[in-house]
Amino acid sequence: MIRTLKAILEVRGMSGANRLMFYIRKLPVLGKLIPASVYSETTLKRTLSVIVHILKVLMAFVTKFAYLGIMIYLPVKFIGNDISLSLSVQYQLYLQMLLCISFLTAGVSSAVILEPKRDKYIFVKLMRLPAERYMRTTLTLRGISFLVTFIPAMLVFGSLLGAPLWHGAVLTLLLTFWRTACEALHLWVFDRYGMVIVKKTSWIWTAIGAGYLLAYLPLLPGYAVVESGMLFNLPVVLGVLVLGTLSAVYIARYKDYTNAVDAVTKIDDPLLDMGRMMKEARVKDVATQDQHYSAEQQNQEKFEGKSGYAYLNAIFFSRHRRLITSPIQRRLVIIGSLFAAALLTMLLSQSAFTKLTHYLITALPTFLIIMNYTSIGERLCKAMFYNCDLSLLRYGFYREQSAILSNFRIRLLRISLLNLIPAAAICLAVNLLLVLSAESWGAGDAVLFCVTIVALSLFFSVHHLFMYYIFQPYSTELNVKNPFFTIVNSVVLGVGFIAMQFKSEPGMFAVIVVLSAVVYMLAALIMVYRFSGRTFRVK
Amino acid sequence: MELILDNIRKSFDGREVLKGIDFTFEQGKIYGLLGRNGAGKTSLFNCLSGEIQMDSGGAFLRRDEVSLPLLEEEIGYVFSLPILPDFLTGYEFVKFYMDINKGKIQADRTIEEYFDIIRFEEADRHRLIKGYSHGMKNKIQMLCFIISRPPLILLDEPLTSFDVVVALEIKKLLREMKQDHIIIFSTHILQLAADLCDELVILNNGTLREIPAETLHSPEFEEQIIALLKDEDHD
Questions:
Q1: Could A399 and B95 be called an inter-chain contact, meaning their C-beta atoms sit closer than 8 Å?
Q2: Which residue ranges does UniProt annotate as crossing the membrane (chain A) (predicted)?
Q3: Is the pLDDT at A270 greater than 80, yes or no?
Q4: pLDDT value at position A267?
Q5: Angle at CA A222, nearest 5°, toward A221 and A227?
Q6: Rounded to an integer, what distance in angstroms lies between the CA atom of residue A241 and that of residue A16?
């Protein structure tokens, strides 16, 4: 077993080292300094693979802290402080959530014994390691590392909630043995019924949904059923330990691992290759759909009078109608339901409604962020890239300055008009609410508000399209590739957050927004004309 | 008209793929660019078409003793994997292409007539390109340069995936067109090159070399080419 373990760790370490080098070579400046020949430096790779192992171990500890901290401890603390619960009730809630998520949900959804995994495919199928040896070794490793890496986080968060240290240790032990029993159950179900539970997507999501609802719903009113006495008593602890041990014996003695591995390492299983699955999902998200074409075939005449880029874009926007209308509909539904919720608040509690409308008036800069997410520009740019530009950019005529500019202008107009729909809905909803409220809201205020929203909507229409033309961040797989794209985008959002901090005069804010929208639009037209010839390419 | 390649160099990741390409291609001939997998055929085409930047050197078009740098719009490039926008029908794409190149084309033919030239089925013209076969897409790409008549036509591994009928049609088409153009097509299939080309050029070890025309139809043609390709590997 030790020899197998060594071999597995060595291969994992090497492929980890390769991956590390691959990503380092992708870094903007540093990457250029490293030649491709680095992959053949075996000594360097050995060092790197040691580093990779250390990083992995550290990560294992960190993720346990992150998981317990973010998913359980912080929500408990947040609610606990909000409705001032005593520390012992908070600990009860903590245990209750841990039971729901780590014991119940994860027991169903996170079992590894029948998990489709590249690692399994590589060792058992490609390298011909006997399935039994591979499974026994990796499962032992997994069990031990699960126990060891959970202990510190359990001790820390438990004692932060006033529990004695031994609670944390026993809890980790219970969790490890309980999860071992779950693994055995998964294996037993497979052996008996030939069923792989982790591949039953609907079951998994039901377990996740139910577990998280059970965990978080009682948290809101601070309702704790579980008491530490229910977990930390001899019969329960002994029961779980015995169950876990028996399960471990079952797993260790299980004969037919070849079958269990075969069932989850089919070469075309999308779960084996997360990268490919995500790529396909991303592309499918924005792909042209045949049925739209056949539905629209009858009214060909609407493209009749158009020519050149106007013709191209008219067809593009018409044939991707669902891609365009569904996000707009979604936004309208959200705006509508928020509006309805606000009306409901008005009927139920006048004081809450007053608070809300007051916030609407003072929080105009918040719309900087909201309008960024209201704009459908980014999604449209993706669709344009994948369905249209990816192929046409291979042609010289499509990359000519004048062609790029006229295409840009047509698209800008289209996107701006589309974005005006949710913008108009927001203007309408907010103004209606304010008119119904006790706030003094004159025609001047209303106009100022609408102008700001419309200008913001224009600003982000230009922004997304401009970013696309100047940085062309997408590769053929549609993941954002260009680091500058992310940087500039974050800067714009950052400016939004800073603007939120200033409670500026609405008039002043409107002027600034209108000016920046106009300046951005002009600058974008000029820069796209000057630079897109070089930047707007398939990379 | 001549296409002059002057000392074109290109490296990827420190590996020099094109090591100073010097060559002159003449109008009215079909050139076969022969090379083994990975020899740099597609890289050379991509450099010429502006798809990727060359590290140094240049390409020039000489007409009546005047040489000017080769422009992107003077090139018709048929990719080995035909790339066309899926959301248009063949008809719409050709109409769009004609609109865009309005100033440059002779307006003596209608779209339908152009489709007739490449023998494209009536019913297929109004189907989405998404459902086209490889051969149909390639035909559409060929139609692009029949319409815009660029002086230089590059074909990257064409015909290899066509069925015999389509391959024959395209071959005929190329022969009919060659008078007014410089046509270069890359391939690693010897028979195809010998069959269709007037001249044969070998890309090996990053340089171009011409094969004497008389070799082309000699019985020892195959052995000679193989010997050449192998020899230079061990230089």
A1: no
A2: 54-74, 94-114, 134-157, 169-190, 202-224, 230-252, 332-353, 359-376, 412-434, 446-471, 483-502, 508-529
A3: no
A4: 60
A5: 145
A6: 35
Alpha carbon of B161: minimum distance to chain A alpha carbons (Å): 20
Take residue A402 and report the two structure tokens written for it: 């004048």
**Same domain membership, residue A530 and residue A389:** yes
Q: What is the β-pairing status of strands B152-156 and B15-26?
A: unpaired
Look up residue A499 and give its two tokens.
Answer: 């603007």
Chain B residue numbers touching A392 (CB-CB < 8 A): 85
pLDDT under 50: residue ranges of chain B = 234-235
Query: Strand pairing of B152-156 and B182-187?
Result: parallel
> How far apart (Å, rounded) are the C-alpha atoms in residues B54 and B206?
13
Query: Per-residue pLDDT for A284 more than 70?
Result: no
Q: Where are the alpha helices (DSSP H) in A437-505?
A: 443-471, 483-501
Q: A40 versus A246: which is more confidently predicted? A: A246
Query: Which amino acid appears at position B126 of this protein?
Result: H
Instruction: Tell me: do A254 and A331 sit in the same domain.
Output: no
A237 and A154 share one domain:
yes
Question: Would A297 be classed as within a structural domain?
Answer: no
Distance from CA of A536 to the nearest CA of B (A): 12
Alpha-carbon gap, residue B221 to A48, rounded angstroms: 52
Judgement on whether residues A237 and A370 belong to the same structural domain of the protein: no
What pLDDT is stored for residue B193 in this prediction? 78
Are the C-beta atoms of A387 and A287 separated by less than 8 Å? yes
* Residues A325 and A250 both lie in one domain: no
Count chain A–chain B contacts defined by CB atoms under 8 A. 67
Residues A121 and A58 in one domain: yes
Considering only CB atoms, A387 lies closest to which of B13, B86, B96, namely B86
Residues B54/A255, Cβ–Cβ less than 8 Å: no
Mean pLDDT for chain A? Answer: 85
Rounded Cα distance, A468 and A384, in Å: 10
Residues A358, A484, single domain; the answer is yes
**Chain B contact probe: residue of A297, A395, A402, A407 with most B CBs at under 10 A:** A395
Question: H/E/C letters for each residue in A115-134?
Answer: CCCHHHHHHHHHCCCCHHHH
Q: What is the pLDDT of residue B234?
A: 47
What's the longest Cα–Cα distance across chain B?
A: 54
Residue A136 is predicted with a pLDDT of: 92
Q: Which residues are bridge partners to B12 per DSSP? A: B15
Q: What CA–CA distance (Å, rounded) separates A239 from A245?
A: 10
Establish if A306 belongs to a structural domain: no
Does A456 map to a domain?
Answer: yes
Nearest CA in chain A to B129: A290
**A36 — contact with chain B (CB < 8 Å)?**
yes
Which residue, A249, A265, A281, sits at the end of a domain?
A: A265
Of A265, A291, A307, at which residue does a domain stop?
A265
CB B78 within 8 A of CB B141: yes
CA gap A48, A30 in Å, rounded: 17
Measured between alpha carbons, how far is residue B55 from residues A281, B52, B231 in Å? Answer: 37, 9, 27
Does A334 map to a domain? yes
pLDDT one-digit tens code per residue, A397-456: 888 888 899 999 999 999 999 999 999 999 999 999 888 887 778 888 889 889 999 999
Lowest pLDDT segment from A74-78, A199-203, A232-236, B78-82 = B78-82
Nearest CA to B193 among B42, B28, B32?
A: B32
Residues 6+ apart with CB under 8 A from A385: A468, A472, A474, A478
Query: How many structural domains are present in chain A?
Result: 2
Specify whether A379 is located in the same domain as A439: yes
Range of the domain at A234: 2-265
Distance CA A474, CA A480 (A): 5
